[in-house]
Amino acid sequence: MSEWSGNLPSETRSFVGRQDELARLDVLLRPDDGLPEGGERRRDRNDGRRLTTLLGPGGIGKTRLAVEAARRMRPAYPDGVWLVELSCLHDSGLTGPSTLGLATMEALRVADQTTRPATEALAHWIADKQLLLVLDSCEHLLEDCAAFVDELRLAPHVHILATSRRLLGLPGEQCLEVEPLPVNASCTATRDDAVTLFADRAAAVRSGFVLDETTRPVAVSVCRYLDGIPLAVELAAARLSTLSLTDLDDHLGTRTDHRLALLASDDGTEDPSRHQALRTTIGWSHELCAPRERLLWARLAVFTGGFDVDAAQEVCAGGPLTAGQVPVLLDELAAQSIVQRDHRTGTARFRMLDTVREYGAEWLRELGEKDAVRLRHREYYRRLARDGCAEWNTGRQVQWSARVLTDHANLRAAVDWSLDRPDRRAALEIAGTAGFLWRHCGHVRDAHHCLDRVLATDSPPGPDLLRALWTRGAGAIMQGDLDTAAEYGRRFAEAARQQEDPTVRSVSVFLTSGQLSLRGRPAEAIGPMSAAARLPVQDDWLGSAQIQTIGALAYAHLMAGDHAAARATAEEVRAECARRGEHWSRSTADVIVAMLDLARGDIASGVHNAARAVAAHGLLHSAGGLAALALDTLASATVAAGEAHRAAELLGIAHRLWDRAGGRAQLNSPDLIAARQACERAIRDKIGDPAYEHSYEAGRAMSYEQGMSYATDTTPRVSI
């Protein structure tokens, strides 16, 4: 493979020091030496080598050390090295080990579509995997993390590296305490990591800064005062943009008040002297900020997982802080390392380190603004979800998919905050809009969590209730939970009868009848769906529901054997989607047309249409069952075209996606299962079992990005 699997952030700054710790972690994280003979796997959850905790206070550098150690271990883990950031769950209403299972599945891009508990589904998925999980910031969910990790350690080749301010307390847990960086005065000292870090960060803000006979002693003084704590050192170095090195040393040396008691450990387990140095440095950074910079710092603490300038302006402006001032102040805070520029998404975004964010949150409470700013945060993402639903069935679908994935943590925080407030109408709206978007963007479990909570209470009738009911039922169909789909279909139909909108009534058959095809009863589905009114398709979520209803009718005709009706209906969907620039529903219609092409022997057209469907899922970053179905169909077309080795690789890629979708391969449909089995038999007959297995495993080994790129490369190949 040309790249390692995983989701580790790209390196934006040099990594300094920690060579002894990295050497120790190299031993602790080294994976087992393969499977025992016969393929039997150990079930010893107390194997301490498979749980290592980096222990230390905030700002000591646990996360950067964990990421660097994980990066160096990537070649040893064929199924990837994955970072699961738990700090975004600070303000979430979700609790329990299942929450961590959900967060981990999101990080691993496991689009589970079963109804099993998240942790159970994850444990099933990783049972035969060899991967490394980095669980970052466990301290605020300590008991839940311990229970969650204990379950994961049943998987014999999964290693876990946790970062925490306290131990998880599990048997066999290996602990590596992260110490401050060493500070030495000698120019020849081999362990002068704190001063090296200071010089590196200083050079980034003051061109030409170097350590020499004049600057080194002052830099050593600064780092000693800061006790070598990396975050404190970096914050101090950022101050060289406005202060001389001597002035910096003088300011630190004369600090006598320590105003960061807010950040002290609740249980007194952290080293007071080390924590005092960090508290002093962050407090001093806060005092050196202008009043409006301090106010923005506090208000930014409501964001989870990052934010862009537009969001910061909408949420944080007010009172003495105008929207026009926010971008300039953000740049100032970034220059001081209070906020970090986030380069992972390819767009201009920012994020805050946990310790700095905690400090801002405490000040926000002190200002008495917490609820007001949280409300503005909720309202911003409420509007975002509303706009996404309004434009989902348009040419802006790709942009909305990317935005929903980028801002998932903030959307989830806004939904959870709403669900805990007395305003049921607001909760119903944002749960329905965010849930609708999540269903299409791979976060079905989040959608079901919020919808189940809001729909368990008496909800006011109207469009918001209808959207929530339809989304919950449609999500159940994607999971193969057909009884639940039928129940929500009944509730939606009852609510729809109270509405005068004929479009609402027309899409109810998607829930009440569309799922019958997956039960093997397509003839019963065709009548009601054919009788549904064909109305002008809307741009919003209802328009998407309209197109999906027509697509379900095309599938029912296909399963019933009426290929002419199936093609005509699928082409109707494709034409409407092409006119709109819509991709999600178009991909499903492309798969149906590809199946019809293969049935009549038009192999080239079958390859083309199946590849189009796969490309659409790649464009939307979709990794669920519908993307896997498109790959299955492409494999069938490819073996029919004479490229058996490539077809086997495609089945391997598809298997990985089905696996990530949670185990309901081929949507649990007997017809689709039979088609997949026929494809495999055809490949084996052409190239033999050993060649099939080799190509199949090569496909399974590809990352999602590699697999989708390979699948959509339809350059003709010579058949072997």
Automatic annotation (TrEMBL):
One of its GO terms (molecular function) is ATP binding. Keywords: ATP-binding, Nucleotide-binding. This is ATP-binding protein. It comes from the Bacteria. InterPro entries: HTH_77 (IPR058852), P-loop_NTPase (IPR027417), TPR-like_helical_dom_sf (IPR011990). Residues 30-52 are annotated as: Disordered. It comes from Streptomyces longisporoflavus. Residues 30-50 have a biased composition (Basic and acidic residues). Residues 293-364 form the Winged helix-turn-helix domain. PANTHER family: HTH-TYPE TRANSCRIPTIONAL REGULATOR RV0890C-RELATED (PTHR47691:SF3), REGULATOR-RELATED (PTHR47691).
